[in-house]
Amino acid sequence: MLLGKKKESRAEFRCFFSLLQGILERLESGEVVIGDGSFLITLEKRGYVKAGLWTPEAVIEHPDAVRQLHMEFLRAGSNVMQTFTFSASEDNMESKWEDVNAAACDLAREVAGKGDALVAGGICQTSIYKYHKDEARIKKLFRQQLEVFAWKNVDFLIAEYFEHVEEAVWAVEVLKESDRPVAVTMCISPEGDMHDITPGECAVRLVKAGASIVGVNCRFGPETSLKTIELMKEGLQRAGLKAHLMVQPLGFHTPDCGKEGFVDLPEYPFGLESRAATRWDIQKYAREAYNQGVRYIGGCCGFEPYHIRAIAEELAPERGFLPPASEKHGSWGSALDMHTKPWVRARARREYWENLLPASGRPFCPSLSKPDV
Amino acid sequence: MLLGKKKESRAEFRCFFSLLQGILERLESGEVVIGDGSFLITLEKRGYVKAGLWTPEAVIEHPDAVRQLHMEFLRAGSNVMQTFTFSASEDNMESKWEDVNAAACDLAREVAGKGDALVAGGICQTSIYKYHKDEARIKKLFRQQLEVFAWKNVDFLIAEYFEHVEEAVWAVEVLKESDRPVAVTMCISPEGDMHDITPGECAVRLVKAGASIVGVNCRFGPETSLKTIELMKEGLQRAGLKAHLMVQPLGFHTPDCGKEGFVDLPEYPFGLESRAATRWDIQKYAREAYNQGVRYIGGCCGFEPYHIRAIAEELAPERGFLPPASEKHGSWGSALDMHTKPWVRARARREYWENLLPASGRPFCPSLSKPDV
Amino acid sequence: MLLGKKKESRAEFRCFFSLLQGILERLESGEVVIGDGSFLITLEKRGYVKAGLWTPEAVIEHPDAVRQLHMEFLRAGSNVMQTFTFSASEDNMESKWEDVNAAACDLAREVAGKGDALVAGGICQTSIYKYHKDEARIKKLFRQQLEVFAWKNVDFLIAEYFEHVEEAVWAVEVLKESDRPVAVTMCISPEGDMHDITPGECAVRLVKAGASIVGVNCRFGPETSLKTIELMKEGLQRAGLKAHLMVQPLGFHTPDCGKEGFVDLPEYPFGLESRAATRWDIQKYAREAYNQGVRYIGGCCGFEPYHIRAIAEELAPERGFLPPASEKHGSWGSALDMHTKPWVRARARREYWENLLPASGRPFCPSLSKPDV
Amino acid sequence: MLLGKKKESRAEFRCFFSLLQGILERLESGEVVIGDGSFLITLEKRGYVKAGLWTPEAVIEHPDAVRQLHMEFLRAGSNVMQTFTFSASEDNMESKWEDVNAAACDLAREVAGKGDALVAGGICQTSIYKYHKDEARIKKLFRQQLEVFAWKNVDFLIAEYFEHVEEAVWAVEVLKESDRPVAVTMCISPEGDMHDITPGECAVRLVKAGASIVGVNCRFGPETSLKTIELMKEGLQRAGLKAHLMVQPLGFHTPDCGKEGFVDLPEYPFGLESRAATRWDIQKYAREAYNQGVRYIGGCCGFEPYHIRAIAEELAPERGFLPPASEKHGSWGSALDMHTKPWVRARARREYWENLLPASGRPFCPSLSKPDV
C-alpha cells in the first residue's frame, strides 16, 4: 500500500472537512487543489465539439457526454468541476449562450456533488478585443455569463485563456463584482503577452485587479508553462504581492512553439497525436509544479482523465490519499507484475517508466516543427 | 456538400433496408460495414479498466461509462456494437463472468437500437491454451459465453485475438453451434501464428471450420495488418475458398514490432501516446483496406471514436452518407476556414493534412524502438 | 597493453612472411585481409573527383592527393592497395583511359611497397551493358584494362560494382586470362541482382566462372551487406562450392534503401553526411563479418581511413597486431582519460561508445527517407 | 557559366592585386576573405592526430599529410593558410614546440605561395590559465610562439579558441608586439565567456587591446556562432568601436549545446558524424554571415575542404570568381544532370538541395542530446 493507515484517517478527516471549505481556504491551508482537464479537444475526439468553432453547445445537445467527462475527471481526482462554458458568450453563440451557461452549471454541480469538488464558473477572452478594445462592450459580455454563474451559485470563478493582460484585468474586475474568489490564467509564454508585457508584470496587474489566484493555462506544454509561472512568481515577489499560483498547461509537448503557442504549430489541431504526454510526463510535471510552490495544478487541451489521475498519484504522498480511479491503476505500472511475459513484468516499476524514451513509430517524421509564424 | 441529393436519398433507403439485414446480407450486397474501436485501452484512460488485467467488469461497475463509449462509436459510424466481453470468461473473471456477459449484451443492444448497428457477441483466446491444449476445457469456456449471447439474442458472433489458429478453429466450431454468422480474427503478423502457420493457411482453416468472415485484429498497426490480410486473401484464393475479409488493427504506428506485436515494444502499455494515428492516417488506412477488398473495417486498441469517424468519412462517397458525428467535423479540416489567423485557415484542405509529417515534440526520443524480444 | 609480448613476435613473423604471400595464401591460412576504403566519395570531398562523373583522372592530374589517400589507408591497416581505376575504361574516359590505368598502378605499387599490402587491379561494370548486352565489346573493354594491370604486374584482380551477374561473369572470365587470383563483388541487396537472380545463385555462377573470392561492395550499408553475404555463403554451401568471402560496404547507414541501394535515396550524393558510420559502428560490423566467416573485410564509399583503422583495431586480438595509425588512437577512446573535464574522462571506455545513441542535431529532419523508386 | 567574361577579368585583376595586399587591406576594401577549415579533427580521421591530446606534431612526423590538407583548403578557396600550431606551446609539447612551430610555418608558406593566400601564425589559450591566472608566465608562452612566427615572417596573427576574455586580451597584447595585424576569436556562446562576460563586452575589450579583427571560432555550430557574432557587432557599435568580424564555427549542428559547447555533448569527440553539415548547410551559413557584415568567413573542427569550397561558391557572385576545386564540382549539383536515372537527374538543381531534409538513417537514435553539464 502506498499510504499507511495513519495517513488514511487523516485523509478522511481532511476530505470531510474540505467539503465545507472554499477554494481559498483549501489553498491557504496548503492543500493541493487538482484542476480538471481537456474538454474541447477531448469532446472533439468523442464527436461532440466542432474543431474551428470550439464552442460548448454539447452541454445542451449531448449532456450525457459532458456529464460523463466530468465524472471521469472527478474520479481521476479533480477538485474542481469547471463549467463547460468556454466561449459561451453572446459574441460566439448568439441566443444560445444563456441556456448553455445554465446547463453547464447544472452538469458541473451535479457531478461535483458526487465527490470532493467545487464548481468554478469559467469565462475566457472575447472574440472582440483584438479588433476593438471596447471595455464597456467586453465587460458586458463577461457580466452576462457571470449573472448565470451567480444565479447558479458557483463556488468560485475562473477567467482563463487571455492573450492580453488588459482584457484579463477587465475580466477580473467584472468577476469580482459577485464577491466570489477569482482565479485568472493567461495563455502566454515566458516572452509575455501579445503586447510584450512580461509574465511578472501581468501577474502583478491581475492581483492588483483583485485576483486571488493567478497563473497560466493552454497554448503551451507543461515545461514551458512552468517557466512562465516561475516568472509570474518572481514578479509578484518583487512587487511584494501575494497570490496563489495555478497552472493548467496543454497535455502536449511543444518545445518548438513560438510566442503564440501551439496554434501556430503545423500539427494544430488535427495532427497533435504524437506530441501527447504520457502519464509519466505528467507525474514529472506535477512534481515540478509542486516544488515551485504551485498548489492549483490541472491541465488544459490534451489532458485526458488519466493525466489528471497522474497528478493525483504523484502528489498522493503529500495529500495523503489516492483518487477513486486509482482502483483501476497500479502505481508506476505495478499491475503488470503478473503478465505472462517476463519482459513485460519487468516494466512494473518506477525506474522503467521514468527512464523510457518513447518512440514515435514514425521514422519519416521529424521531432520538431517550425511554427507557421 | 460532400454528397449530392440523389445519394442522400439512396442512403436513406439503404439505411432503412440495412436495419432489416444481418451482417452477411450487408457484406454480400457489397456494403461497407464499419466496426467499432478501442474499449480496453480507451476505458483504461478514462479510469474504468485496469491495465494488466484488461477485464471488462466496468459493464457492471460503471455501465454509464461503457454506454457512453458505445454511443460515441455509434455516432462515429460504427455498424457493429461488439459486446464488451473481452476475457470475460470463467478463467479470467471467476463467478463474475456470467453477469458481465449479460450486462455487456444489454448495453450493446440498448445503443445499437439507437442507430444502424448490429450486436456482435465477442469472445477471445483463453488464458489456458498456451499451457494446456485442452480442447474440451477450452471449448467449454467458449460455450459458456455463447450461451449468454444466444439467450440475449446477439446478431452475430466474433472470435477475436487468437495467436494460435488451432484455438481459433475451436472457437469457430463452438460459435457455429448457435446458427449465427461467425467472424474470426487473429492477432498475427505476416509471419503467421505462434506456430509459424502462415496467414493464408490460418484463413483457410478458419473458413473450413465454418467462419464466414476472417481477418486480423489488434497487436499490429494498420499497415502491418493490411499486409497480413493480403496474405490471408491470397491463401483463400489459392484454396478456392470464399469469405468476407475483416480488419481491426491497432490505432498505433508499429513498424518496429516483432512477431508478437506491440506487447513487446518497450512503450507498451503506458507510453504508446506518440505512436497514436491521426485521423488522416486512418483515412488512408480505410481507403487501402477498401481497395484490397476488405468490407468489414474497424479498429482495436487505440482506435478512438474520431478514428472510426475517419473511416466513415473516407468511405462516405462509396457508402453514400456521413455518420452523425460528422455534424461536428468539417471534412479534411474545412471548419478551420474561418480561423482568424490566415496560416491556420490555410490548413482547411485535404492536401495540407495528407502531406503533413507530424513532429513528436520529443527531440530526445528515437523514432523506432527495439522490441524486447 | 592490448596485445602481449608473445603475440607481437608472432605478428612480426607473420608480417614478414605475408609479404611473400599472395592474396590466396593469406586467406587460405585463415588470415584476415583488410581492404581499403572510399576513393571517389572521399576525393570528391577533398576536391579531386567530380560527383556525377565519378572518374579517377586525379591519378594523373593530382597524384599527390591520390598517393596521400593510399598512404592513409595503408597506415590504417589496409592490406590491399586497389588501383584507383574505377570506370577508367575507354567507354568512360576516352583516350585518357590508358594513362590513367598505368598511373594508378604506379601509385598503388609505390605505397604498397611501404607496408604489408598487395596491389589489386580493379575494374567495374561498364556503361554499356544496360543498353546492349554485347559480350564481345564489353569483354574488350575489360581486357584493355587488364593488359595494363598485367604489364604493371599487379598481385591480383578485383571486379567490383556489378549489378548484373551476367556481366560480372564476363569480367571474371576475362580477368582469369592473366593467371592471377580474381575477386569479384556485386553491388546487390539480399533481393538479388537487377534480374532478380538471388545472391546465392550469383555467388555460384561467379565461382564456377573462376572467381576465388566473392562478395559484395558499395550501394548498401554494413548491415544490409552482411545479410547479402550470408545468402551468398548459403548458396555456395548448397552447391558444394568453396570460395573466400569479401565484403566492402558503404560507410553509411541505409536501412531505408530500396533494391538499387543508396543512389535512390534522396540524400545521394550530396546530403549523406548524417548517415555516416562512427568508428564504433564499424568495429561492430567488422566483428560480425568475422563471425560470419568473412576474411576479406574492407569498405567502399564513405569508408574513411579511420573506419579502416576501426576494422584493424577490432580484429587486432585475432590478427595479433595493431596498424601504424593506432599510434594516434587510444582504443575505445582511452586517450580521453586525461581530459580536464571528468564527464569527458568518463567517455574513455568501451561501454560508453558501444552504447551511445548519437543524436543528429537535426530535429527538423526525419530518421528515414523514402527512396525515389 | 556562373560568371561572365567581364567579371572574370576583374577577378584576375583582383587576384593579382590582392597578392600584394595584406589581410587588413583586403578587408578594408570590402573583399571577402575565406579562412581555412578543420585540421585536428580532420587529421585525426586521416590517422595523424591523437584525439585527447589534440597536438600538431604531424607537421614534423608526417609533413606530406599536413601539406596535402593545406593544398586541399587552398584549392577549395581559402585565402589564409593558418599555421598548424594549435596547442604547440611549451606547456603542451615540451621541447618539441619550437620545431613544430617552425615546420608549421614552412608548410603554410609553401602552400600559400601556390595561390592567393596569406600565412597566419596561430596561437590558442594555454593549459595554465584555468588553474593559475599567471599573466607573466602565460604571456611568455605566447611570446615564444610569436618569436618563431616573426622569424618565419608570417603575414598576420590569429589568437583563437579562448574561453576567457582576460587571457585573450593578454594574447592580443603579446601579438601586437610584432607589428603585424592581429585577429582574435573566442570559443564562446551568446551567453558569454566562462565568467559570463557578454560577447559584446568581450569584443570591446579585445579591440581596445589592439585586435583589428574579432569574432568566434570552434565549440559551436554555424547558427549559434552567428548569433554570438551578432552580439559582438552590437557591442562594438554601442561602444563606437570599429573592427572586422570573423567567424570560424564547427562544421557540426549543435543546437543542443550548453554554454561550453560541443565538448559537453555525449557524442564528443568520436560520435559526431551524424551532426556533420552538408555543403548546402554551409552555403546558407556563408550567405548569412555575409549578410551580417562578416567578411572573414571560415570554419573550424569538422570543416572539410568541400565545406570551404561551399563558402567560395556561395559568395562567388560577390567575389567574381570560383575557387580551383570548383572544376570538380557542379554548382548546386548540376553535374548530376547526365545521370542515367531520371530521379537522380532531378536532383541537379538548387531548390532540391536547399529544401532537402536529410535523414540520419538511424531510427533508434534521437535528434538531440542532453549535454553532460
Question: In words, what does this structure look like?
Answer:
Chains A, B, C, D: Its cofactor is Zn(2+). Chains A, B, C, D: It comes from Pongo abelii (Sumatran orangutan). Chains A, B, C, D: This is Betaine--homocysteine S-methyltransferase 2. Chains A, B, C, D: Pfam families: S-methyl_trans. 4 copies of one chain form a homotetramer. Chain A has about 375 residues and is of the alpha/beta class. Chain A has helices at about 5-20, 25-30, 40-45, 60, 65-75, 90-95, 95-110, 135-150, 165-175, 200-210, 220-240, 280-290, 305-315, 315-320, 340-345, 350-355, and strands spanning about 35, 80, 120-125, 155-160, 180-185, 215, 245-250, 295. In chain A, strands 1-8-7-6-5-4-3-2 form an 8-stranded parallel sheet. In chain A, strand 5 (about 180-185), helix 10 (about 200-210) and strand 6 (about 215) form a beta-alpha-beta unit. The first copy, chain A, is globular, with a radius of gyration of 20 Å. Chain A starts with a helix and ends in an 18-residue tail after the last helix.
Give a quick set of tags describing it:
homotetramer; 373 residues; 8 strands; alpha/beta
- Please estimate the helix content of chain A: 40-55%
The SSE order of chain A reads HHEHHHEHHEHEHEHEHEHEHHHH
SS-based class of chain A: alpha/beta
Strand order of the largest sheet of chain A: 1-8-7-6-5-4-3-2
Overall geometry of chain A comes to globular
Report the count of strand segments of chain A. Answer: 8
The number of helices of chain A is: 16
Given as residue ranges, the uncertain stretches of chain A (5+ residues, pLDDT < 50) are 1-17
**Kindly state the mean pLDDT of chain A as a whole number?**
94
Distance between the termini of chain A: 50 Å
Q: What fraction of the residues of chain A are assigned to beta strands by DSSP?
A: 5-15%
Multimerization state: homotetramer
Please name the two chains that share the biggest interface, counting residues whose Cβ lies under 8 Å from a Cβ on the partner chain. Answer: A-B, 80 and 81 residues
Largest sheet of chain A: 8 strands, parallel
Radius of gyration of chain A: 20 Å
Domain Hcy-binding (chains A, B, C, D): 21-315
GO molecular function (chains A, B, C, D): S-methylmethionine-homocysteine S-methyltransferase activity; zinc ion binding
Cofactor (chains A, B, C, D): Zn(2+)
InterPro entries (chains A, B, C, D): BHMT, BHMT-like, HCY_dom, HCY_dom_sf
